[in-house]
Specification:
Layout (H helix, E strand, L loop, with lengths): L1 H26 L10 H12 L4 E12 L4 E5 L5 E4 L11 E9 L7 E10 L11
Antiparallel strand pairs: 1-2, 1-4, 2-3, 4-5
C-alpha cells in the first residue's frame, strides 16, 4: 500500500522540489559560493520588492498555462493574476505556490517576487488560513 503512494507521489514531489530549487537559486544566486552572505541577497530582493505598487502574499493554484505565461488563482480570495515570471516548462497545474506577487504602477502583468513554498495540489486540503 505504501509503495503505491510512493510511486504515485514521487513525480509531483520532484516537480515541487525542482521548481523550489529554481526559485531559491533565483532569489539567492550566490548560495553555493563560499563567500555568500544571506543578508546581501535578502536586502537585494527586499529592495526589488519595494519597487511594486501592489503586492499579494498568498497561496496560489496554477489555473492555466499559456505560451505567454500562467494564470494564478488566489486560493483565499479566488482572484486571478497573470504572470510571466515562471519557467513554463517546469510548471504544472498540479502545484500550489505560496509566495508573493507584485505589480508595478500602470502594468497589467504581475511579477512573482518571493517563493515561500511549493506544494502538490492534493496537499491543499491540509493547508489552513489563519485569520
Amino acid at each position: 500500500m505504501v509503495d503505491g503512494y510512493i510511486i504515485n507521489g514521487t513525480p509531483i514531489l520532484k516537480n515541487c522540489e525542482d521548481l523550489l530549487n529554481y526559485f531559491f537559486l533565483k532569489d539567492y544566486p550566490r548560495f553555493h559560493q563560499p563567500d555568500w552572505v544571506y543578508e546581501k541577497d535578502h536586502d537585494r530582493w527586499e529592495k526589488q520588492a519595494g519597487e511594486y505598487s501592489e503586492s499579494i502574499n498568498s497561496l496560489f493554484h496554477i489555473s492555466a498555462v499559456t505560451e505567454d505565461g500562467i494564470i494564478l488563482k488566489d486560493i483565499d480570495s479566488h482572484r486571478t493574476y497573470f504572470t510571466k515570471s515562471f519557467p513554463i516548462k517546469k510548471i504544472s497545474s498540479e502545484l500550489l505556490l505560496s509566495g508573493c506577487l507584485g505589480k508595478r504602477p500602470h502594468e497589467l502583468v504581475w511579477d512573482w517576487i518571493v517563493t515561500e513554498s511549493i506544494y502538490p495540489v492534493k496537499g491543499g486540503k491540509y493547508i489552513q488560513f489563519a485569520g
